Amino acid sequence: MTEKLLTPISSSLQGELHVPGDKSISHRAIIFGSLASGTTKVTHFLDGEDCLRTIAAFQAMGVNIEKQGQTVLIDGKGVKELKEPLEPINLGNSGTTARLLLGVLAGLPYHFTLYGDESLTKRPMDRIAVPLKQMGAVIDGRENGKYLPISVRGGNLKSISFETPVKSAQVKSGVLLAGLMADGWTTVTEKTTTRDHTENMLEAFGGKIKKQSGTITIEGKQSLIGTDIHVPGDISSAAFFLIAAAIVPGSSLTLKDVGLNPTRTGILDVLHAMGAAIQVVEERTIGGEPVGSITVSYSPVKGIDINGEIIPRIIDEIPIIALLATQAEGETIIRDAEELRYKETDRIESVVQTLKAIGADIEGTKDGMIIKGNSSIDGGVADSFGDHRIGMMIAVASLISSQPITLKNPGCIAISYPEFFSDLKKIIVE
Ligand code: S3P
């Protein structure tokens, strides 16, 4: 087990930063590029461990994928040329690879075995296995197919109409990808809108999809054509610096070229509602996704209630929002976020335990947390529990801590942001 000593800063955060490519979009670029015919060039690809798992999975199926830093070239030959892998596929820590890949594999007439690390092995897969079985895939795994390791025998899928019981873009995307491999039209209905990068990217690859107030319909057996994808900066990674600048006195920071897809920008709404000094400039569209630069300056913030429709739009940002809430005037109450329990860790438990360990006043509830504001961060020992977003939240907390924080298990940060500590260093004014 490794540790990293994080020391408080006596200065502020200043300047500009380009955060790495969006994790969700990077995964999908590899998936669609591998299903399409022709070359796909992905630029500003997220060179993080999770996305590398998606590349390795398609390489195992015979796709020629070459990566040089943040540029990836995929020599797509179409679905029919995908091969049966010789060995089980290791998904590491990546829930997105697991749920989306299952959708693809369900449509292929081969046998697959999937496994993951300790965390992924505990995360529910029945949410995607159940609809895929309805479509005709043969899927089994530990505890009646609920958990990895999972085996799939795919092929001959029929289309379904599926209403997602969980607010999950991963489940929606997995079913849509299976729908793409099936005969006929597959419909997915979601009660609460989740991120729509799968739908957008299908269109970028020449596919057709119908979207009508929460119902998405995809025609099966469409041929996709390789294309160039430029991945915008990940707003979920930018969130750590947005909040760092909001809580470190005297700071002013601009995050450049960040993805501003409305299904992802709940963090900006939360910052506005809490009274943070934030501004979005240079808005434009790149490759079908809105992009812009976000400037944040330090200012006092107030506690708010966060619940309902916004939750899927901030689902990955809640750990860092919890830290912001510890610094606000008054109480913040987060509800309707039970999905946090099924992330890389049970993020209600891990956020509460870590923030408590370093001096915050926070309590977990069934579906969220109650955070008292005006709390001092006192330092101490805090564990990431192997969860990248918890690790980065602790690193941001250390900036305003009265004493150093020893972060246990910092290595997991490479899952979504390998350059996190060097980027942080760039913006600390000495
Ligand atoms: C993701 C969707 C979200 C998110 C995850 C990435 C995606 O998960 O937490 O980091 O790329 O579709 P759920 O859709 O399961 O909530």
UniProtKB/TrEMBL annotation:
Residues 10-424 form the Enolpyruvate transferase domain. It is an enzyme of class 2 (transferase). Phosphoenolpyruvate binds at residues 23, 95, 123, 170, 347, 389. Keywords: Amino-acid biosynthesis, Aromatic amino acid biosynthesis, Cytoplasm, Transferase. Its EC number is 2.5.1.19. It is found in: Cytoplasm. It holds the Pfam family EPSP_synthase. The keyword Iron does not apply. Coiled coil: none annotated. InterPro entries: Enolpyruvate_Tfrase_dom, Enolpyruvate_Tfrase_sf, EPSP_synthase, EPSP_synthase_CS, RNA3'P_cycl/enolpyr_Trfase_a/b. It catalyses: 3-phosphoshikimate + phosphoenolpyruvate = 5-O-(1-carboxyvinyl)-3-phosphoshikimate + phosphate. One of its GO terms (molecular function) is 3-phosphoshikimate 1-carboxyvinyltransferase activity. 3-phosphoshikimate binds at residues 23-24, 28, 168, 170, 316, 343. Pathway: Metabolic intermediate biosynthesis; chorismate biosynthesis; chorismate from D-erythrose 4-phosphate and phosphoenolpyruvate: step 6/7. The active site is at 316 (proton acceptor). Transmembrane segments: none annotated. The keyword Amino-acid biosynthesis applies. SUPFAM superfamilies: EPT/RTPC-like. Its main location: cytoplasm. NCBIfam families: aroA (TIGR01356). Catalyzes the transfer of the enolpyruvyl moiety of phosphoenolpyruvate (PEP) to the 5-hydroxyl of shikimate-3-phosphate (S3P) to produce enolpyruvyl shikimate-3-phosphate and inorganic phosphate. Monomer. Belongs to the EPSP synthase family. This is 3-phosphoshikimate 1-carboxyvinyltransferase. The lineage of its organism: Bacteria, Bacillati, Bacillota, Bacilli, Bacillales.
